[in-house]
C-alpha cells in the first residue's frame, strides 16, 4: 500500500487535498457555480496534480476506465456526490453550525468498504492507520478522497477551516494557517483585490453625496 499524502499540505493553495477537491467548483457559493471536472479521467489528472495519485496509477486507471467505462462513470458520479456532501459539511463548520446527517452518511458509505482491512502499524517512531485497499481499483481516487476528508475532520486543523469572504459567492475553502488566523480570501490578489476595489468605489460614491 502506498503512503497516502492526504493531510495538511502547505504547498496547496487551500492547505489540504480535500479542500482542493471541494474547490474544483468555481463560484461554489453563488447561484451560478461552474464545474471544472467533467469525467473520470479529469478526476485522475486532478488527483495526480495535487499529489493524491502517482503517475503510474493514473496511467493504469486510465486504461481500466477505458475498458470499464460504465463503472468509471459511476465512480466519478459518486465522487461528485461526495464532493458536494463534504462541501456542505465544511461550510457548516465555518459557520459554527451542525452538519446535516445526510452528508456524513454519504462519507461513511464510501468509507465502509475500507474499515474491515484497516490496521494500526508502526511508522517513524509512532503509529498510524494502514488502510488495506487496492490502490489500482477504479474506486481508489474516491477512497483516498474520503480518507483525506477524515484526516481533516478529525484533526486540530478543522477549527481553522475558513471560507472566502467574497460577496459574489466564490465559496472557496481553505485551512487558515496564517499567524493570527486572520485569512479572509481565497487569494488577496483575486477576491481580496475585488473587495478592496469595491470598498474604494463605495467611499468614492459616499464622498460625492
Overall outline: globular
- Give the amount of beta strand, in percent: 5-15%
Helical segment count: 7
Distance, first to last CA: 67 Å
Characteristic terms for this protein:
209 residues; mainly alpha; Jann2411-like fold; two-stranded antiparallel ribbon; 7 helices; 10% strand
Quick recap:
The protein has about 210 residues and is mainly alpha-helical.
Structure description:
Helices cover 49% and strands 10% of the residues. It has a two-stranded antiparallel sheet. It has a two-stranded antiparallel ribbon with strand order 3-4. It is built from seven helices and six strands, in the order αββααααββαββα. It has helices at residues 17-22, 40-49, 55-67, 69-94, 101-115, 140-153, 191-208, and strands spanning 25-26, 34-35, 119-123, 126-130, 161-163, 173-175. Strand 1 (25-26) and strand 2 form a beta hairpin. The chain has one domain (17-208): Jann2411-like domain (Jann2411-like fold, Orthogonal Bundle). By secondary structure, it is mainly alpha-helical. The mean pLDDT is 90.
Give the secondary structure arrangement, pairings included.
Layout: H1 17-22, E1 25-26, E2 34-35, H2 40-49, H3 55-67, H4 69-94, H5 101-115, E3 119-123, E4 126-130, H6 140-153, E5 161-163, E6 173-175, H7 191-208
Helix pairs in contact: 2-3, 3-4, 4-5, 4-6, 5-6
Amino acid at each position: 500500500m502506498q503512503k497516502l499524502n492526504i493531510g495538511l499540505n502547505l504547498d496547496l493553495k487551500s492547505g489540504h487535498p480535500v479542500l482542493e477537491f471541494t474547490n474544483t467548483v468555481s463560484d461554489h457559493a453563488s447561484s451560478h457555480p461552474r464545474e471544472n471536472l467533467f469525467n473520470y479521467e479529469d478526476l485522475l489528472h486532478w488527483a495526480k496534480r495535487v499529489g493524491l495519485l502517482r503517475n503510474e496509477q493514473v496511467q493504469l486507471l486510465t486504461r481500466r476506465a477505458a475498458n470499464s467505462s460504465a463503472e468509471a462513470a459511476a465512480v466519478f458520479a459518486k465522487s461528485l456526490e461526495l464532493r458536494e456532501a463534504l462541501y456542505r459539511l465544511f461550510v457548516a463548520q465555518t459557520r459554527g453550525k451542525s452538519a446535516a446527517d445526510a452528508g456524513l452518511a454519504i462519507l461513511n458509505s464510501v468509507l465502509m468498504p475500507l474499515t474491515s482491512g484497516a490496521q494500526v502499524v508502526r511508522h517513524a517512531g509512532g503509529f498510524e492507520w494502514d488502510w488495506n485497499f487496492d490502490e489500482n481499483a477504479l474506486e481508489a481516487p474516491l477512497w483516498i478522497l474520503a480518507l483525506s476528508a477524515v484526516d481533516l475532520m478529525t484533526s486540530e486543523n478543522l477549527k481553522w477551516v475558513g471560507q472566502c469572504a467574497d460577496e459574489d459567492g466564490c465559496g472557496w475553502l481553505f485551512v487558515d494557517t496564517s499567524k493570527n488566523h486572520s485569512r479572509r480570501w481565497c487569494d488577496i490578489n483575486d477576491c481580496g483585490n475585488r473587495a478592496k476595489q469595491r470598498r474604494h468605489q463605495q467611499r468614492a460614491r459616499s464622498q460625492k453625496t
